[in-house]
Protein 1
Amino acid sequence: MRISELSRRSGAPVSTLKYFLREGLLREGERLSGNQTSYDDSHVQRVRLVRALLDTGGLSIAAAKRVLATLDDENSSLAHTFEAAQHALGVGRDGSSRAAASEAARERIARVAARNSWHTSPENPGFEISARVLDDLAAIGYEPSDAYLAAYAAAADTIAHADLGALRDRESADLIAELMIVGTVLGDALIAGLRRLAQESATEELFPVAEPRADARPSGARQPQRRDPK
Amino acid sequence: MRISELSRRSGAPVSTLKYFLREGLLREGERLSGNQTSYDDSHVQRVRLVRALLDTGGLSIAAAKRVLATLDDENSSLAHTFEAAQHALGVGRDGSSRAAASEAARERIARVAARNSWHTSPENPGFEISARVLDDLAAIGYEPSDAYLAAYAAAADTIAHADLGALRDRESADLIAELMIVGTVLGDALIAGLRRLAQESATEELFPVAEPRADARPSGARQPQRRDPK
DNA sequence: ACGCACTGATAGTAACACTATCGATAGTAC
DNA sequence: GTACTATCGATAGTGTTACTATCAGTGCGT
């Protein structure tokens, strides 16, 4: 197929496809002559993958490029592909480099990991991401309890095993690698969505709407001293 | 304190603080005279909250503004604040409006919710977010199993109860509302980080590095993935 | 032989999140 | 009282990102 059909089948404008080509997010098609290039179903697939990474996954073009590069790297074991993809994903959704997390926060995350018998490399970006959240919470004045972190860790463990379990019964190594990466990126969005649902439910459970408490003031503009009295 | 000290204490440049003021992310201080305005600790706190929302939570200025507006809305019940915050967060991290999820995907999410006895409003953005992931996975050629979704839902349930549990023993309604919102936004990042750690561990567990498959090239020095060639 | 789709290259655009500059003013130091 | 410095609101400018548009040249199909 030519680029116009690739556009029609993938839903992306031709100009965007050319942009993806330029940026290396999409392999070049087979050149038939000076002004004819042929694309196939794998290109359609790839465009959809890129759109999912960008839109649902919230990745930047640069991050998507790194992720796809590890995917296209043939001579890697699964574990290595995964590790590379994790690094390619980086610390944020984009490639932004903010201040690093504190050592204390990183150590607390390490303790959580140890308690779950996770064995991980110290360069796993998960340390940085999680530790930064702890630092942010501390800056806001909130110190999460061990039980809170343990619950999050248990949930992470559940998810990770579900992800890997979904992979186990696949045959092609290529497909496994792709699913692994897609699962990492889209799984973040999936858990975020489900969490919104679970939270609404849990909120009503614990704080019913017909709350007789008179916490809501009629008007008064008092300055609340928000500080955690730890 | 004056704006320069607010800057020093919060770590944000004065020009950025003025920007936050303009955008309504930060309440105006108390005007003492034509060119003197006094800020207090609550402003320092707020700046840190905004930075956490923007940097770690990945929110856009517009989304952060909506979220903070619901937080500042005094006459709301907790449940209502939460609901408003969920909507303020919107479907993506930013306010981008992409194509809606399919009805089939939305129904599948509804079934998952029902199986967990979540009772939620149909407008909860969690439906849209999760359903879109399902659509994306389908477009990639992957149909997640019920077991897979069930595991994610169980994890979401665990997290939601941990979040709410952390709130229950707080006294001030203002603080609870703030934590609820921060928890929603930063919690996404926290679970993402922990998930990365759990996945690395689970990957090694299920796909050991010394894999006898012919796909893995056991030759020692792997080319590190292309770092940023900029 | 003519027209249209295609090619790569380059230029332009819109949104976003700041960041810098400005003239006017006012509090503080001497 | 004068000099100095910080602040004020307003406005303009900057760098990045993710496209989107235009263009000159090429060649397949009828």
Protein 2
Amino acid sequence: MRSYATEQRSLLSDYLSSRPDVYLTAMEVANALEPKGVSRSSVYRNLLALEGQGQIVRSAGPKGETLYRFCGERCSDHIHLQCERCGRLVHLDEEETRAVAAIVSTRDGFELDATRTVIYGICEDCR
Amino acid sequence: MRSYATEQRSLLSDYLSSRPDVYLTAMEVANALEPKGVSRSSVYRNLLALEGQGQIVRSAGPKGETLYRFCGERCSDHIHLQCERCGRLVHLDEEETRAVAAIVSTRDGFELDATRTVIYGICEDCR
DNA sequence: CTAGTTGCAAAGAGTTTGCATGGCG
DNA sequence: CGCCATGCAAACTCTTTGCAACTAG
């Protein structure tokens, strides 16, 4: 099953990649693209597809809202921190990520999934 | 505003505390307690209340489902690991948690929120 | 008594799906 | 052309809310 390069897909990709490091709800994306002629269902269908391809990461906010974040290739190899107050996202570097991985591996040989893990806290500016 | 000790609340607390370290959806809880005579709305209302009191932690699964987990007092001082495959929950000890906190604090003075943070990965048994 | 709590049913929010139309290749 | 993708609207799921009846203190 091949896949077609449609106008809507390209608009969606453009929008997401223009907002890296920001967690967006499907609704925000849909509202942003609706004026450009992308239907709600296409947004949902394509967000799912992009998630399957690993181009965006699906996660969830403290209240359970589903959130999507554009994910450059290079984001799969490190953990992210997120400030619970301002939402700022910080990318740990590979060395820091390895250090965390080392800690968790001492427990049941736990193998860290950096893609899915987000460490929450409060950044200095928000304190 | 004081609070009444009702039959429904006690059933809910009993049920939750009998299942520590397990993430439950509100629906699972509601289905389990419905036969005992607790209505769905009471389950939702009391889960919210318990979350406010810090007795349970609300989080979200990979697909965005809202999950609740009973949280003994002692769980607020350390991070949890969760296996993405079997769902097993591992409690890091305070020393390990401090080590992670130290790593993230080098970034923007980021102050770890151990209550909300869950590190995902795959446990040894599941590999 | 009297304020907090419950159950029900209806309303809401967010997401998914069926189907006919349209567009990429 | 053939197949995939789109748009629309209806269907769905999960959660919240209004209101009258109920109950703990």
